[in-house]
Amino acid sequence: MLPFIQVDEDPDFDIIQEGNKINIYVDLRGKGLNIDNIQVKINSNSVYIIDQQSNSTVKTINLAANTNLQVSEVRKHNGTLLIILEKNN
């Protein structure tokens, strides 16, 4: 018998653009992760959230191709990760 409520283990996220910055909010609460062990990497079209303790990718967020962004800041607060991206000149 299947449960009535399906639990999705994939972290929820929101993307908000403010001028030349993109803020990505990722909800890691209840995922059993130590947020201090989280690392953020970026390439030309994806942001990777990596758990350094287990050496596994927690979340991949795809961006528009060739967005030319760089990570300017990462904030961690109460299980929520804020990744601030800026356009690379």
Automatic annotation (TrEMBL):
It comes from the Archaea. Residues 15-87 form the CS domain. InterPro entries: CS_dom, HSP20-like_chaperone. It holds the Pfam family CS. This is CS domain-containing protein. The lineage of its organism: Archaea, Thermoproteota, Thermoprotei, Sulfolobales, Sulfolobaceae.
